[in-house]
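PROTEIN DESIGN WORKSHEET
SECTION A - STRUCTURE
LENGTH: 479
TOKENS:
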């Protein structure tokens, strides 16, 4: 009993990873892309009193200072001086056309409306009472960005009764919905793809449109699976008639609402700002870190501690503490920013070194297998640091802009020397050159790739085909 109750002592060894506060801050800055780091620098300049941009000192030489004689011209004369000659001056700025009192500046407007605004404009042209207009407006609000209705007439009637206190039947909602389905763009207000295509075909006339309408109405499943021979047999038409009908259907828009821009803000959000620029000159590759942030420095009044007037003065001691604290915060941010820039430059330099063949030719088929460990071997950085430094970053070249993540790819298997990009380039080449009447199956593609030296499993070939957004052979078949 005593032995069981005896306490035992032992040694145990364990490893724990602890990050220093500065490492955490560097990691956070590394994750930021160009717009985000610019915003971070602006925030730091606003919040850190000891930090300033090196070009914001406010000093100017005598030659740079504006003289009084420089301001003798009127605002209108300055504007007219921007034009090379009088012939280049637009009409609205000419004294001969407008008196000074009637002068105006044209206002730039966005000529493109959203889908919702476009439909509301057409709704305003309808002769509806206030209640019907309110119901139709709610129906338009149930149409998504692609132009499809997202709720049934019964659901819309229930929504109006509960939220707006409008008592309306589903049948009346359907009547107003049918009016909206006649608006532009053609196909708007459809419930699904089949309905969308039919709405557009109704606005077309002729024998070809009639054949296309019958195909979508009665043989949509066969059409979607490209069983063209069965459609020809069941409809009793010729292959030429089918080919003309298919050509007409392919001209239709499956997403009628997508042709309208939603907003300028959303359009700007799609823009990519590269972080690096790489250009090849002969056999030499030049790499530039696109740094749009200003050079930072310590503000002059925080540069050095002022001497204490009295050792016992609490105000003086508090002032010195304030200056030291904010000076250290500014210095820390400058060091962090410099470390971020250095890390990004070193990581990108390693990528350029490993992917030299790509940057010389910009042929994606020449992207060699590369993983994070390869960059770590060249830079000495931790894998997490490299992952943060490449996430959301882009490199610009004379022929395009590429995400850094594109250059990271493993070998399909241990025996295969080619990269996934090289194999996908070969796969696309084989599919592009295939006979569209008898497209290559995944099995056939696997055999053809093997004959070129790429020994892959069929499911691997299918995976690469899907990554290229290429459908299966049956759906690639053409007449």
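SECTION B - SEQUENCE
RESIDUE ASSIGNMENT:
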């Amino acid at each position: 009993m005593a032995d069981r109750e005896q306490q035992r002592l032992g040694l145990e060894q364990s490893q724990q990873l602890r990050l220093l506060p500065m490492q955490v801050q560097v990691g956070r800055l590394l994750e930021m892309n160009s717009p985000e780091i610019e915003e971070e620098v602006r925030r730091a300049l606003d919040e850190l009193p000891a930090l300033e941009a090196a070009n914001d000192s406010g000093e100017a030489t005598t030659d740079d200072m504006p003289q009084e004689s420089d301001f003798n011209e009127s605002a209108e004369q300055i504007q007219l001086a921007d034009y090379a000659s009088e012939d280049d001056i637009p009409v609205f700025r000419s004294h001969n056309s407008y008196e000074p009192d009637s002068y105006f500046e044209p206002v730039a407007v966005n000529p493109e409306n959203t889908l919702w605004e476009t439909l509301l404009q057409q709704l305003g042209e309808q002769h509806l009472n206030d209640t019907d207009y309110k119901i139709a407006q709610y129906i338009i609000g149930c149409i998504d960005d692609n132009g499809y209705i997202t709720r049934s007439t019964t659901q819309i009637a229930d929504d109006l009764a509960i939220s707006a206190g409008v008592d309306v039947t589903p049948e009346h909602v359907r009547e107003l919905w049918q009016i909206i389905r006649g608006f532009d763009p053609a196909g708007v207000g459809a419930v699904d793809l089949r309905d969308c295509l039919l709405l557009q075909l109704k606005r077309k006339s002729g024998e070809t449109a009639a054949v296309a309408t019958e195909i979508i109405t009665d043989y949509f499943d066969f059409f979607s699976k490209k069983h063209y021979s069965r459609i020809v047999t069941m409809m009793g038409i010729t292959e030429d008639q089918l080919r003309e009908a298919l050509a007409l259907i392919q001209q239709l828009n499956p997403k009628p609402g997508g042709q309208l821009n939603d907003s300028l803000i959303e359009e700007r959000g799609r823009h990519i700002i590269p972080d690096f620029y790489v250009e090849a000159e002969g056999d030499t590759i030049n790499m530039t870190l696109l740094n749009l942030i200003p050079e930072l420095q310590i503000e002059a009044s925080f540069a050095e501690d002022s001497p204490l007037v009295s050792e016992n003065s609490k105000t003086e001691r508090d002032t010195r503490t304030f200056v030291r604290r904010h000076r250290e915060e500014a210095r820390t941010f400058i060091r962090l920013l410099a470390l971020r820039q250095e890390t990004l430059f070193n990581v990108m330099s390693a990528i350029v070194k490993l992917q030299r063949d790509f940057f010389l030719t910009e042929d994606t088929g020449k992207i060699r297998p590369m993983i994070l460990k390869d960059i770590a071997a060249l830079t000495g950085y931790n894998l997490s640091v490299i992952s943060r430094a490449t996430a959301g970053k882009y490199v610009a070249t004379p022929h395009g802009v590429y995400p850094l993540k594109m250059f990271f790819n493993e070998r399909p298997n241990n025996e295969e020397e080619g990269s996934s990009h090289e194999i996908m380039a070969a796969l696309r080449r084989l599919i592009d050159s295939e006979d569209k009447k008898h497209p290559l199956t995944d099995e056939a593609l696997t055999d053809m790739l093997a004959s070129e030296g790429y020994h892959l499993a069929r499911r691997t070939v299918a995976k690469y085909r899907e990554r290229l957004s290429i459908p299966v052979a049956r759906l690639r078949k053409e007449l």
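SECTION C - NOTES
The beta strands are 51-53, 276-281, 284-289, 296-298, 394-397, 400-403.
The chain is about 50% helix and 5% strand.
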